[in-house]
Every structure is written in C-alpha cells, then in structure tokens.
C-alpha cells in the first residue's frame, strides 16, 4: 500500500490579481543601496558592521562614504593629517579612515598616541613621559627612563631623588566640541617581576607625605584649573591624578593646553616616583581610564 505525494507550488496573489512565485518575492536585496545607507547612518558603527554581513547589497551600502563620514569626529582631517599624511588621506575611503583612526596611532616621533573611540567617536590623546618637559631629566643622578611592560610606551620616567620636581606638558590639538579632563599616571615605587609575580620596591619612596603636589592647567582661550594632592600608595599600584578640566566650544579650531605637576618645596628631597604618561580624555568616559 503506498501513498502518492504531489508537490504543490504555493503562490502569492499580487494587487492586480496575478500571482508571484517564491523566487520572485521581494527580498532584502531588492532595497535600493541608497535607502539602506541612509538607514545605516542612524546606527552605531558596531551595528553597521554586523548588518554589512546580511548580503552583498548591505555590504556595499555599508561602505558608502557619507555613512562613515557621519561617524567621524569633526576634527578627523586634522588627526588624519598628523598620523596618516595628506597623500594617504586622499586615497582612502571614509570607512578606511575611520577604521585606521580607531586604532592607537603614534605621532611626534612615537611620543604621543591618539585614537577615536569606535562607538562614541570621541577622541583620546596620550602623551608619554618622553613628550613632557621634566626638570633634570638629562641628569641621571635625578631621573632616568626605565623599560617596563606596564607602560603602553614601554618605558617610564623614574625619579631617584630631587628637591625641585616639576613636569610640564604642552600640546596644541584639535578636539571635537565637548568637555575634557587631563590626568597624570603616576606610581610611588619601582615595579618589577619576581618569579612571575609583580613586586613593587618602595624602599626609595620618600618626601611625598610632607607637602602636596600642585597640579595646574591652562588653555589658550583663558581657562584655568588648580588642585593639590598628596601622592598616595594604594597597594603600590598606578594612580591617575586629576589635573583639571577644560571645555572645547568651537569646532575645527586647535586648542593649546598647558598643564603641570610640581612639588618645588626645597626644604626636603623627594624620590621614588614613576611617571608614565598624561592623558586627555572626554569627561563622560572616566571609566575608560581603568583599561590603561
């Protein structure tokens, strides 16, 4: 006893009374690329990249220049010229520029690093100890550079002992409109590896509990900030010390920022300090500092 199974082709009735076979039904691939691109402009970059995998039409639409130009910060040409060069910039698509700027990019002989956050489009600027003006850095009796894997720049400035301690940073840079904070990354003591474990030698740390360190900030448009902190030793780890805040109100205009830390009371010497870098970070993302 057997059963005969007949295949039936289902059809969809259209508005004119005709029928559409399954192969002729509308699909995502039928949406015009320009419409898809306009939709993608309203999404965050990670979501754009996910939808680019839907099909070839979405992939092509996701590569449109106007989609990625809307995600780039207003100062992207200024940054790109510094890290990519004018010639390379002219030959790259906006998507390629965005992908490149979202990576850490070194400039000024590798002493500074800048990148764009891939989700928010905000700009971060990192300045190594070698890009800062450190009083006495050329005299090895006072300071020297120590190699370390704990720094993004693979070395830190270490203070043996000095009476006049002063570190000054200056930068002229184009930032997107917004509010920014500056921090110094400091550590009391010298860290090293011992049998695979991190150990911090604090034997030479002295003089920081007598007077606070003064932090100052000024900008070319008249903003000023001042604060004082005693350097502390939270389980011999790195600490981000807040220098101050400034606001950028005018797009496409470079802002000149000068900032410093100083302990210049010459009644007592200070020593055992490691200086890694200074960072300029958007205020809304203070939690991001934990990753450095």
TrEMBL record:
Domain F-box intervals: 25-71
SUPFAM superfamilies according to UniProt: F-box domain
InterPro entries: F-box-like_dom_sf, F-box_dom, PP2-like
Name of the protein: F-box domain-containing protein
Species: Lupinus luteus
């Amino acid at each position: 006893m057997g059963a005969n199974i007949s295949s039936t082709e289902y059809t969809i009735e259209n508005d004119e009374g005709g029928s559409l076979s399954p192969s002729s039904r509308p699909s995502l691939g039928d949406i015009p690329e320009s419409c898809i691109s306009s939709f993608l402009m309203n999404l965050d970059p990670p979501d754009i990249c996910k939808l680019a995998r839907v099909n070839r039409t979405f992939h092509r639409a996701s590569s449109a220049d106007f989609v990625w130009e809307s995600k780039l910060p207003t100062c992207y040409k200024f940054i790109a010229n510094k890290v990519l060069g004018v010639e390379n910039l002219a030959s790259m698509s906006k998507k390629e520029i965005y992908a490149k700027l979202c990576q850490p990019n070194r400039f000024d002989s590798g002493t500074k690093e800048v990148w764009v956050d891939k989700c928010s489009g905000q700009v971060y600027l990192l300045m190594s100890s070698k890009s800062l003006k450190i009083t006495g850095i050329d005299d090895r009796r006072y300071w020297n550079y120590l190699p370390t894997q704990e720094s993004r720049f693979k070395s830190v400035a270490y203070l043996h002992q000095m009476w006049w301690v002063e570190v000054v940073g200056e930068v002229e840079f184009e930032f997107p409109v917004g509010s920014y904070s500056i921090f110094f990354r400091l550590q009391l003591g010298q860290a090293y590896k011992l049998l695979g474990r991190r150990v911090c030698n604090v034997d030479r740390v002295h003089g920081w509990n007598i007077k606070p360190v003064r932090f100052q900030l000024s900008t070319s448009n008249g903003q000023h900030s001042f604060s004082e902190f005693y350097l502390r030793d939270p389980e011999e780890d790195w600490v981000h010390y807040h220098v101050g805040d400034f606001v950028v109100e005018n797009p496409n205009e470079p802002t000149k920022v000068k900032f410093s830390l100083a302990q210049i009371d010459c009644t007592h010497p200070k020593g055992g300090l490691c200086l890694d870098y200074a960072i300029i970070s958007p205020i809304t993302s203070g939690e991001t500092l934990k990753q450095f």
